[in-house]
Amino acid sequence: MCPMAGKKISNEAGIAALQDLPAELATAVRYLLQKIEADHRGGTVELRVPPFGAVQCIEGMNHRRGTPPNVVEMTPEVFLGLCKGEISAKEAMTMPGCSFSGEKADLAFGVFPLLGL
User: What is the pLDDT of residues 61-76, one digit of tens each?
Assistant: First the structure.
């Protein structure tokens, strides 16, 4: 899993991927991670959606090396549900394949749902 670096996914390509799920799941997840990284800059929480990507987000402390102290990891399906507002943070915390570690991991839920989806 790699951070969102390199070529950016255009809005047109990202929206098209969201409309063609599950065929374009990887592109859709990477596009949404890219939006979160841009809209919620910072390094307080590492948001992981394996195997598609990870970003550091939310202002506050910056983490540079090793395992970050605040990690949110979730399945692509749960991530998409949160982004679309179909799953609540409380529901996500109980779903298989999802983990939340660190005292500031709950801050990640402030980025969901993403507006305009």
Answer: 765 666 678 999 999 9
